Amino acid sequence: MVAKKIYHAAIYVRLSKEDGGVAAAGKAESNSISNQKNFIKDFLKDKEDIEVVSERVDDGYSGSDFERPAFQMMLEDIKRGVVDCVIVKDLSRFGREYIDSGMYIERLFPVLGVRFIAVNDNYDSLDRKNNSDDIIIPFKNLINDAYCRDISIKIRSHLEVKRKNGEFIGSFAVYGYRKKEDDRHKLEIDTYAAGVVQDIFRMKLHGMSQDAIAKKLNQSGILPPAEYKASIGSSYQSGFRVKEKTEWTPVAVRRILKNEIYIGNLVQGRQTTPNHKVKKVYVKEKSDWIRIEKNHEAVVSDRDFEVVQRLLAMDTRTAPGNGEVYPLSGLVVCGDCGMPMIRKTTRAGGRVYSYYICATNKATKECRPHSMSTEKLACAVLELLRKHIENIIDLQRILSFIGTISFQQMDMKKLEERKAEKQAEVEWCTDLRGMLYEDLKDGMISGDEYRELHAAYESRRKNAQLAICQIDLEMGEILERKSRGFVWLDYFTEHQNIEKLTRNVAVSLIREVRVVDKNSIEVIFDFNDCYRECMDNLGRLGYEIGCDGTSKDIQLKEVENLAEGNIMSADTGQVSDGVAETAVMERRAV
What we know:
By secondary structure, this protein is α+β, with helices and mostly antiparallel strands. Helix content is 44%, strand content 15%. The protein has helices at residues 31-43, 69-79, 91-94, 98-112, 133-164, 191-205, 210-219, 225-231, 250-258, 302-313, 359-364, 374-402, 405-441, 447-481, 488-493, 503-509, 528-540; strands at residues 7-15, 50-59, 85-88, 115-118, 123-124, 177-179, 187-189, 266-268, 271-272, 282-283, 290-292, 332-334, 341-348, 351-358, 371-373, 510-517, 520-525, 552-555, 574-575. The strands form six sheets. A five-stranded mixed β-sheet has the order 2-1-3-4-5, with helices on both faces. Helix 4 packs across helix 5 (133-164) and helix 6 (191-205) crosses helix 10. It starts with 6 loop residues before the first strand and ends in a 15-residue tail after the last strand. Residues 545-590 have low confidence and may be disordered.
């Protein structure tokens, strides 16, 4: 009598997050996993030819692919000959991917001599008497695959709605924030980490490079994001970790400096996968990102963030052994070719001299060979900045006297005139469309000409209507804006007692310093367009204005002893007509 074959079985159970989630805190496994195990064990009570040797559990893993840890361990047992029978509750627990499920059940398992049992589906590969299984099993796998695709589409759609509603859907909050206890989809400031973020921005504004910032943080014992999250009990894992214990790096610092989440903007949906089967991640077009502005409390101001982005775009480097860049690094350009000027140092007579030279002239000689001493340039820029701040203070005084209502009324009047023009255009196009039909009836134009002209008038009418809608939006913004449009004045006036040109002041108030020749420079201040618009509006309101104030140009021929640090006074330099003399305003007689 031949002994009956005993199969060494692996019980395999699986539950995805979408099907019911992972085990709750304090529990070894979810209820559904336990129910699956009990169901299978109850089925095996009278199966004397099956001996259970292992239980493999994938709790919280999708069935859309087979890259699951417990499943892969079961495959290793099969290859080693430890397991020759696999038992699942039903085919959907085994997997929801049509092609791979069929490959395992119909090809790989038979080749390896593995018996496969799906209890609820009444399928046992050892019993092949029912030929309908050859049709039903692939069909059920196809249904499971379709179910997985349907769930994937629903989840993607649900997440998209959450993003558009300003809900944070990441697994872990960004460094500087934490998830709210009462709403895990909302962010609140983590006081300690946010303070570190503010220090990083402050150090960058004061001229420190990303490398110098990272070194200072490490020397101060400040934990980097991954280590900090671990210290507060988070299970955060990062793909950027390259050492057992992470440290601050220039890349990590730059990542923080470029993240607009710190000004309250929530940007999500940057990356995606083609579908639930293909796991390759690709970056979406920037226009397809979901950006919700002012979604949560900001850590840094919009102004500081804007200036830092400008700094990151500059090609600036620190000198060897120096942790900070020079005050005017990245701001000085050649007045002829517009290319950045290079800072050079030379030694003569036991002294060190530094100066800026044109990069184009140095490389190709295609520009004039002009240069300027760094000390001389810094003093001149400081003097011009002081004069500009004086003008700003005078401008602010005048604005506070006349108020901003006049500006609003003037802007509203211009918009009303534009709106009236567009409304007249809409009426004109409407009338011409009506006349076209009469011309067609009278035989003055052909059918083709009618359709062509009708389409042209209709297109022009729609464009005019869109312009009217845009004008209405602008008018609403003016009414809401009030005095916020002049907040930029405060950026200058807070430095009215400036005595030294620092990196922070330079990058905050100056856009560009143009070196025309060794005795002449031109400074373009930040908010130059706002300044010009404000001056023009004052002129329209009836105030005499000395000039437009678009830039400042100073002659340096009479400046002496600048190397010793003497500040240029008003009578040693000649300020050209480019200087805005806002103090010279007079009311015109109307």
